[in-house]
Specification:
CATH topology of the largest domain: Rossmann fold
Number of strands: 13
Strand content: 15-25%
Helix content: 25-40%
CATH architecture of the largest domain: 3-Layer(aba) Sandwich
Shape: elongated
CATH superfamily of the largest domain: Glycogen Phosphorylase B
CATH class of the largest domain: Alpha Beta
Number of helices: 12
Largest sheet: 7 strands, parallel
Distance between the termini: 24 Å
Structural class: alpha/beta
């Protein structure tokens, strides 16, 4: 019979390794040789990521390459990996599960939307993965709801796989010194509602609005991002993004769809107030309505304009109170929380925590 009191030998895979991937650092620091960390690179890599991580990363050209390398990692008894759409990872899961009863944790950042696609996805998940995945790792409330909908038992769903690493995203000065500025960070495209954001801002300025809009991003709708009060500084590395977040008052993310939106947590950690659409997953976890920001009523230029005026007309004290609340909430999404989630998996699966000899 398989010994359930085995020393943990974990493998963590992060697809498109982003700056929030630094949350894994404490796990790697503490468990050292017990953990193998594998990733694919993001489309626009964070240049200092490996230096800050200070651990070896095994890079795959594409996720499915894991299958060709399976014998290099055949001793793993805890596997935590992104998604269930890569056949190579599903084959690897089955390989290590059969070989040494490995426990498989699937990472998902999708939100519950109740669409027909998700109803079909729930059926597919139950038929194909209900016996394969032993737990799920999600960012927050909406992710929990989706995995419950897919059939994963609530006690096997753990939150904390996204957030803002404290070495990058933190407050660096007093709120009183911030500019009267809205900040957008991300891709400039239809999904992120760049068209609605710019139209709403121009309407706000045409009606006497005085604040500026700073944009840190690039994309197919970049040509829209010009006009009075609009500054586009293009794609910006995370440590510079943090500096901009510490000099502006309100983060704007009015996406038509966003799985979670780590930028929301990063901005909150830097003490920003928030203007979010209802389609941003992190809204349910990071935003307290009228306390540290607002949810856009309708995804329209008129509502964007009206929301901008709402923030402009807020008192400095009220704005600073929202900043402090953002900081408090974001404190629940740091590396310590990712580390705690990892320990939950170890305990749940009956693995030992001691380092390997």
């Amino acid at each position: 019979m398989e010994d359930v009191n085995r020393t943990v030998k974990a493998l963590i895979f992060w697809e498109g390794f982003p700056s929030c991937g630094l949350l894994v650092k404490k796990v790697l620091d503490v468990y050292a040789d017990n953990v193998i960390f594998i990733a694919t690179k993001s489309a626009v890599p964070f240049r200092a990521l490996e230096t800050i991580l200070d651990h070896d990363v095994i890079w795959l050209d594409k996720p499915d390459d894991i299958w060709a390398k399976r014998f290099n990692f055949s001793d793993r008894n805890l596997v935590i990996h992104t998604g269930w759409n890569h056949k190579g990872w599903i084959k690897y899961d089955k390989f290590v599960k059969k070989r040494n009863s490995a426990k498989i944790v699937v990472v998902s950042d999708n939100n519950y939307t109740g669409t027909l696609r998700q109803y079909l996805g729930a059926l597919y998940f139950r038929l194909n993965f209900s016996q394969l995945f032993d737990a799920a790792f999600v960012p927050g409330k909406s992710g929990v709801k989706l995995l419950e909908f897919f059939g994963m038992p609530t006690d096997k769903i753990v939150t904390g796989n996204y957030g803002a690493h404290e070495t990058l995203y933190h407050v660096t000065g007093d709120f009183v010194h911030r500019k009267n500025e809205f900040l957008y960070v991300g891709q400039l495209n239809h999904r992120k509602s760049t068209d609605i954001l710019i139209e709403g801002f121009k309407q706000y300025r045409n009606n006497g609005g005085r604040w500026n809009l700073r944009i840190l991003g690039s994309g197919p709708l970049e040509s829209l991002c010009s006009g009075e009060g609009i500054v586009n500084d293009g794609f910006t590395q995370p440590h510079n993004v943090s500096a901009y977040m510490n000099s502006a008052k309100v983060l704007v993310l009015v996406s038509r769809h966003d799985n979670w939106g780590t930028v929301v947590c990063e901005a909150a950690a830097c003490g920003m107030n928030l203007l979010l659409s209802k389609h941003v997953g992190a809204r349910e976890d990071i935003l307290e309505e009228t306390v540290n920001g607002l949810t856009l009523g309708d995804l329209s230029a008129d509502d964007v304009c009206n929301s901008f005026f709402h923030f402009e007309q807020m008192s400095d004290d009220r704005m600073e109170f929202g900043s402090k609340r953002s900081i408090e909430i974001a404190a629940g999404y740091r590396s310590e929380n990712y580390f705690s989630a990892f320990q939950k998996f170890i305990k749940q699966f009956g693995l030992k925590e001691r380092k390997l000899d």
